[in-house]
Amino acid sequence: MADELKPRTASINGNLWGAHARDWAEIQEGQCRAVYLAAFDRAGLGPTTTYLDVGCGAGMAAQIAAERGAKVAGLDASPSLLAIARERVRTAEFLVGELENLPFPDNTFDFVTGFNSLQYAGNPTIALKETKRVAKPGALVLIMTWGEPAGMQAAALVAALRPLMPAPPAGAPGPFALSDESALRAFAAAAGLEPIEIFDVASPWKYESLEVALRGLRSSGVAARAAANSSEESVNAAHEAALQPFRNADQGFVIQASFRCLLARA
């Protein structure tokens, strides 16, 4: 297929998402903890589960799965993030690699997740087909993406970086492209998965101070790309302005965020 010839992006994404790896692990990754818990409950993850997280970052989801007794593996583009994942789950297998070419055998896992990761692949459809390949027949695959942006407070933080980003290629999907239920179902179906259900999880972002909020927000690969195209000072300024409506009396911040998950069967 022609779309398989698109360039892969692990080397690019690995540098971007690993630029502030420790801040990501200590501040921002946990903002989605509620989603990890809901996904594992929905899938019935437990001691007999062989589990793979693609785009596993610093391994928080993998750590939770391991604490529930699952046999855990993970893949990410960033060696810096994987170093932290290995600290957290010493019994897991963590590999650096491409989402479009997973280094695992066919029919290996009972449950495969992509928590806000598959859309960052050079070719998301090929990446999702790879998750199906490594899943056992009848196994569960979960895709997490942003919830509907309308009315979501966190969408303002995403929008704040738009003026600092390089111009996207023509026809490139935006960050909320898969938030639409029909688009998400079509994405799964195109990879040969059978959609089971879509569910939303509220997962508010909480920061105790402006300094912590700025460190957390600039630790994403998206923020790193914006900083490379402008400057880290510009990224901090954009985030600080966008944060102001959410400041509490104690000078901390709570920003409402929602994530959409599709659970499918391989």
Describe this structure in words.
- This protein has 266 residues and is of the alpha/beta class.
- The protein has a single domain (2-149, 169-204, 257-265), classed as Rossmann fold, CATH 3.40.50.150.
- It has eleven helices and nine strands.
- It has helices at 10-17, 21-28, 33-43, 60-67, 79-88, 124-134, 154-160, 181-190, 210-217, 221-229, 232-243, and strands at residues 50-54, 71-76, 93-96, 109-115, 135-146, 194-202, 205-207, 253-255, 258-265.
- It has a seven-stranded mixed β-sheet, sandwiched between helices.
- Helix 4 (60-67) links the parallel strand 1 (50-54) and strand 2 (71-76).
- Helix 3 crosses helix 4 (60-67).
- The protein is globular and about 50 Å long.
- The model has no long low-confidence stretch (mean pLDDT 95).
